[in-house]
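Q: Hi! First time doing this. I have a protein sequence and I read that you can turn it into a structure. Is that right? Here it is:
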Amino acid sequence: MFSTIHDVLADLGDDTSYKDDWIRIHYVLVAFETFEFVFFAHLMVVILGYTNKLSECLQRREQDILNAISLVNGAKDLIQQLRSNGWVQFLERVTLFCEKHGVEVPSMDGNYVPYGKSARYARARNQTNDDHFGREVYIGVIDQISQELDNRFDEVNMELLSCMSVFNPSDSFASFDAQKIRRLAEFYPNDISGTDLLKLELQLDNYTDAMRQDDNFKGLHNLVDLSVKLVETKRHTVYDMVYLLLKLVLVLPVVTASIERVFSAMTLVKTKLRNKMGDSLLDDCLVTYIERDIFFEVNEDDIIDTFMSLRKRRSDKSYK
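A: Yes, that's right. Below is the predicted 3D structure, encoded as structure tokens:
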């Protein structure tokens, strides 16, 4: 939409009804036509494109852990390849885009002149365009993304996800690994004691064989279906330690995603006008915003009736 946005800005700059904003429009239009803007926009598209699927997967309420692990590893590999071998191809793409839309492409060997600065400032700084765009921006942004991925998904977290994935019931529990389940239990020392670990080991000896031989557990594809089927068949009482671990596995991704969702929602709900609201009202506003899909299905008359029934109130008729 580069050309369309450019034309809109140009039209606004010629429209006398926007005369008071001409200075700002001109400033935005000039910045829009710079190589720096095009470079940043392309880099953002590439980075977000590589991490978009992973981001969507981690925000789902029902997560496919195996798919999440694959997407994490895939995102890390793509980012590393982009850093090692992607600069030349990326610069060519940006250059072709600039030539197509009439944006001036600076020489990579020339001095970098920041937008709004003079050539004298650039000479004093003595930094080439290649050094700025290639090392400082391109490599710098990629390294920040890589570090963030490594911090979020370090060896411990990846091991935890790997251990969680062995509960997957697909293909007759083909991914089941008793050793990884024991390792998973060690991540929850407050919930599973040493005695419980021994009990878990004894249950694991029979758990897989029983699941594979029972027709009720055939055709399951995710952990939610497995937990439901365990309760329906009363097996959750027989394999209570396995079921406890399964519940912990199901709760962890949802809690993590919910926390991220709450913090994102808080920036939208807690505005300057609501900055002094109490915690109780803030909690209510957050709940209604975060779970808005559910509240959209609630009948407004039911809300009014419930509110009116809390205490004796005058109806509309009493005001007339």
